[in-house]
Amino acid sequence: MDVWGDSYTIGKWQDLIVETLESGDSTPIFNINPKDTREFDAIFLGGGAAGRFGAAYLRALGGRVLIIDRWPFLGGSCPHQACVPHHLFSDCAAQLMLERTFSSKLWFQNLEDKIVSIKNIVDLFRNGRTGPHAVMNYQSKEQLGLEFVLNAESEIIDANTVKIGKRKYQAKNLVLALGAKPLVADIPGASLKGVFNSLTLVEKLDYEPGNTIVVIGGGKSAIEYGCFFNATGRRTLVIARHQLMPMLKDAESRSYAILMMEEQGMEFLEYAEISNIQGDLQGKVKSVSIRTADGTINVDTDFVFMGLGEQANSEMIAQKLALETGEKGFIKINRHMQTSVHNVYAVGDVTGSPMEMFKARKEGVCAAKNIMGQTSEYKAADYPDFMHTHYEVCWLGLSEEEARQRHANVKVMKLPPDNPNGLDVGLPAGDRMMLYLMAKPRMSGFQKLIIDGDTRKILGAFHIGYGAKDGFQYLNFLVKKGLTIDDLADMDELFISPSYFIQLCRLRAGDPHFNNM
Asked: CA-to-CA distance for 447 and 517, rounded, in angstroms?
């Protein structure tokens, strides 16, 4: 199917994507300029965040680029199976926590002992996800002028040649933007119906889960999906082989986040593991056995979720091109995004942690610059991070523990302050937290700013609540530039949660020898 000469609206793209996905049609969609006889400077295998942004940048530099993707749309797994459903589920968890906290109060309905549907929310996502796909196809074709082949299974012939059916495409460089997929634990019973991960949940859930859900893992994916399951009213048990949420390194912040989840009914077993998953006569999950330090626990459930991280979609191509790979198949690259084969680059999730959109986009752009002769380096480091529990949890820089190991004079400002009398007080409070502040003040959040008392520079910041996530990416930039409490105090704050950092700094800005607060 050749679409180069046709003008496709967003609606027309959406119809084509839906029809292709529902029918299973394997006809490739070609969008290649027949009048451009130049050799491709690069072929991007994969049109997700890394591939699409990298290709757009390469073309902007005057190069010719081709994207090849197995799906009938650009944008990759983020809008189809990963980021977008995760954010939808997190929005639902936040809304349901609010409604359960104020159940039967004010205008809120009674949710006492009520379970809401998981399947309905998954179906909502499935029915709505083609819109973003269509926008990205339209934007890429009509506005960015990108050439691509979609809905195509490709075969790599060598480091310069890719084959689709009987057609061969050659390029000076090959950029692997292959993405990653969820890890599946090697546990007896892992293949039973009712065992899901982030991908299979949105693709294969065809029944309403029962009253108990078991989540395997203690990192971002496990915690975020577990909070969603819990918010729907189900008993949710999280099994972690190691410490919960190790990426949230500040112990005080982590403790608050865990306490708030436990108060919503979440159950955690650290340093435990699933020994096996049992099924019924129909091959569906009916129970799990959990090995703990105190012995084995058996839990009845028809739904197990694996949130164990990701592995690279690299195996066949890495073997074909003799690429050097590391743990979980992630392709090894240098700071120019080059692999062990000089004209083969790798970008995005296929290169490993962090599995974040900003990193994928920046790696794609970095590869494009180097291909077009602009020497560029990139390595994801010192970036702001976040996760969703029932709250937004954001952090940047050093934890208090890390700061005290590196600096002699560490000062801490936080809200709420230490409260030895145990009074039920609020703050911080900002957007989306005011009802909690007035009626459930201890749920209104937690903030912590870590400062070098000698240089007055901000070393780290932590926030649990709402309204800080967007601000943190800009705050992080300023912190890396050497932001001090005096710089923060001089800013104009809006009444949103991050502004509390500004207010706290302003209270100490005139004091040359300030104390903790």
From this structure: 12
CA distance 395 to 504: 17
Query: Which of the four pLDDT bands, split at 50, 70 and 90, describes residue 503?
Result: confident
Superfamily (CATH H level) for 184-306: FAD/NAD(P)-binding domain (3.50.50.60)
The arithmetic mean of pLDDT across residues 59-71, rounded, is: 98
Encoded tokens for 35: 């009048």
pLDDT of 142-167, one tens digit each? 999 999 999 999 999 999 999 999 99
Which residues are 267's β-sheet partners? Answer: 237
Nearest Cα residue to 28 out of 55, 66, 56 = 66
Alpha helix positions (H), 215-353? 220-231, 251-263, 315-321
Which of the 8 DSSP states describes residue 20? H
Question: pLDDT of 212-230, one tens digit each?
Answer: 999 999 999 999 999 999 9
Per-residue pLDDT of 134-144, as tens digits, reads 999 999 999 99
Cβ atoms of residues 359 and 333 within 8 Å: no
* Residue range 391-508, CATH number: 3.30.390.30
What confidence tens digit (pLDDT) does each residue in 404-460 have? 999 999 999 999 888 766 667 778 877 888 999 999 988 999 999 999 999 999 999
Contacts 24+ apart (CB under 8 A), 277-284: 277/187, 277/188, 277/189, 277/190, 277/192, 277/195, 277/304, 278/189, 279/189, 279/192, 279/193, 279/194, 282/193, 283/192, 283/193, 284/192, 284/193, 284/194
Sheet of 267-270: strands edge to edge?
195-196, 304-306, 212-216, 235-240, 267-270
Tell the CATH topology of 10-80+129-181+311-371.
FAD/NAD(P)-binding domain (3.50.50)
The domain segmentation of the chain, as residue ranges, is: 10-80+129-181+311-371, 184-306, 391-508
Fold match, 10-80+129-181+311-371 / 391-508:
no
Query: Are 51 and 44 spatial neighbours (Cβ–Cβ below 8 Å)?
Result: yes
Query: Where does residue 19 fall: left (phi above 0), alpha (psi -120 to 50 degrees), or beta otherwise?
Result: alpha
Strand-pairing partners, residue 410, are: 452
Instruction: Using DSSP, state whether 158 is helix, strand or coil.
Output: strand
Write the CB contacts of 342 (distance below 8 Å, at least 6 apart in sequence): none
Catalytic residues: 74, 78, 83, 133, 495
| CA 81/CA 66 separation, integer angstroms | 24
Cβ partners under 8 Å of residue 125, min gap 6: 84, 85, 88, 202
CB 79 within 8 A of CB 196: no
Q: How many CB atoms lie within 10 A of CB 146?
A: 23
Q: Give the whole-angstrom CA distance, residue 475 versus residue 500.
A: 13
* HEC letters along 212-244: EEEEECCCHHHHHHHHHHHHCCCEEEEEECCCC
Tokens 């932001």 correspond to 483
Residue type, 382: D
